Amino acid sequence: MNVIRNSILLLLICTFFTSCTVLQWRSSDKEIAHYFKQKGITSSISYFNVDSLNLKVRVQHVTTSTKPVNVVFFHGSPSSLSAWNGYFNDSLFLKQANMHAVDRPGYGYSNFGKPIISIKQQARVMSDLITHYKLKNVIVVGASYGGPLVSRIAIENPNIKGVVMISPAIDAKQEKKIWASRFTQWWLTRWLVPTAYRVAGDEKTTHAKALQAIENDWSKVSVPVLHIHGNADDLVPYGNTTYTKAQFKDLKVITIPDAGHEISWSKPELVKPHIISLIHQVLEDSTMSN
User: Fold this and answer.
1) Distance CA 96, CA 279 (A)
2) Per-residue pLDDT reduced to its tens digit, 236-265
3) CA dihedral defined by 143, 223, 276, 273, rounded to 10 degrees?
4) What is the DSSP track for the chain?
5) Residues 6 or more apart whose Cβ sits within 8 Å of residue 159
6) Span 82-101, pLDDT tens digits
7) What pLDDT is stored for residue 177 in this prediction?
8) End-to-end CA distance of the chain
9) What rounded mean pLDDT belongs to the chain?
């Protein structure tokens, strides 16, 4: 009876919103262009093609800085590249680095609805993307699911000079089961769930296994890693910090007191300074090596 009741509830929610597109967490190219034009910020959109996977990955670029550092942002789930608007709008970020944000496969306008559930494979695609755009002195920033993804990219690509994981779901043993994700897997209810949530459910139900496939490789990450986590996170346990301390050679853990999972957006003023600090470090290292 609970399944039927909850299914009806989901149907009513979708009906209330008229169209489930409001729950898809994405903006069109035109909407993004309009938003940033109003802000007076020069922004562009491009697509990276992966012919072997019949995949097109959407990337947003804001490249107005003269500094030779590139920051590439990867969202969690469900989400899209527009989640990073608050960082792309930041005057300090605009001066300190060129910025790029990616719709991960299955989200936004990157093969919407068709995820790549292997973190290892997804990291290879993103590494190829970074190489395609000839990005140097790269800092990769990933939130939640994007956390282990960016750490894996650092193994794949030598142009990565720093990693920032925000509330990363990286320890397979601490993966929490989310009851709502069951609706994305049952044939009876899957069709009722908005596409972005189905993708998130597909990732969530396979995430522990995907982490186990790469967990022996973290010692290969040789660049500085920042792990930023709220100690009141009820979705991805703060205990993940204990795991990363045991796995990464060059790690700094930043604890955000009394903060939950969405600190990238709920407390950006506590997150941004640490990314800026890493940008300065990478810039200094780049200057010294030239």
Assistant:
1) 7
2) 999 999 999 999 999 999 999 999 999 999
3) 60
4) -HHHHHHHHHHHHHHHTSSGGGGS----HHHHHHHHHHTT---EEEEEEEGGGTEEEEEEEE----SS-EEEEE--SS--GGGGHHHHT-HHHHHH-EEEEE--TTSTTSSTT-----HHHHHHHHHHHHHHTT--SEEEEEETTHHHHHHHHHHH-TTEEEEEEES----GGGPPPPGGGGGGTSHHHHTTS-HHHHHHHHHHHHHHHHHHTTGGGGGG--S-EEEEEETT-SSS-TTHHHHHHHH-SSEEEEEETT--S-HHHHSHHHHHHHHHHHHHHHHHHHHHH-
5) 130, 131, 135, 136, 137, 138
6) 999 999 999 999 999 999 99
7) 65
8) 67
9) 88
Distance CA 288, CA 131 (A): 23
Both tokens assigned to 285: 């290292």
More confident residue, 285 or 100: 100
| Longest Cα–Cα distance in the chain | 67
How would you list the strands of the sheet with 44-50, edge to edge?
44-50, 55-62, 98-102, 70-74, 138-143, 160-166, 225-230, 251-256
How far is Cα 287 from Cα 128, in angstroms, rounded to an integer?
25
**Which residue in 27, 181, 22, 195 sits closest to 114, CA to CA?**
195
Pairing between strand 55-62 and 98-102?
A: antiparallel
Match 């908005």 to its residue by tokens: 194
Tokens of 163: 């990693």
56: left (phi over 0), alpha (psi -120 to 50) or beta: beta
> Residues 6 or more apart from 155 whose CB is under 8 A from it?
123, 217, 220, 221
What digits encode the pLDDT tens for the residues 271-282?
999 999 999 999
Q: Identify the residue whose tokens are 């903060």.
A: 259
Angstrom distance (rounded) from CA 144 to CA 128: 22
